[in-house]
Amino acid sequence: MVTSTIKYLGDLRAECTHLKSGQKIITDAPTDNHGKGEAFSPTDLTATSLGTCMISLMGIVAMKNQFVFEGGSVAITKIMAEAPRRIAEIIVEVQMPKLDFTHEQKRMLETAAINCPVAKSLHPDIKQSISFSY
């Protein structure tokens, strides 16, 4: 089953549609690669997907183990390399909710995050620098 469709709109912009929900995302080439940078670039989405996957898995762990996780956030920094142009590093800064997690809960949450499907799908040459702040 097709997950999404992508329509090229011209001027280095595309409209992506998630077929199950109908939700749309616009992408734009970044300013350092001939674009306007007015929306997520494809590499921005890749880096952002890592953060959303991590925090979603952490939420699943909390839900399955019946403890609260709401309030966490992630800041993503994408570092590009040249020749060939590619993502060299994704810096993931996870700000944990201001809750009293046990040592075991912290271990479960961090393990889920670093082993999320996107983290395991990225090429090993992409450095993943991950930190958790409590």
The radius of gyration computed from the alpha-carbon positions, rounded to a whole number of angstroms, is 17 Å
Mean pLDDT: 97
Overall number of domains: 2
Strands, total number: 6
CATH homology-level superfamily of the largest domain: K homology (KH) domain
Q: How is the largest sheet built, in terms of strand order?
A: 1-2-3
Discrete helix count: 3
Net shape: globular
* CATH fold descriptor of the largest domain: GMP Synthetase, Chain A, domain 3
Which ranges are low-confidence, i.e. pLDDT below 50, for 5 or more consecutive residues?
none
Q: Describe the sheet with the most strands.
A: 3 strands, antiparallel
Shape-level CATH architecture of the largest domain: 2-Layer Sandwich
What percentage of the residues does DSSP assign to strands (E)? 25-35%
Distance between the termini: 40 Å
Please state the structural category. alpha+beta
In N-to-C order, the SSE pattern is: EEEHEEHHE
What's the CATH first level of the largest domain?
Alpha Beta
Helicity level, as a percent range? 25-40%
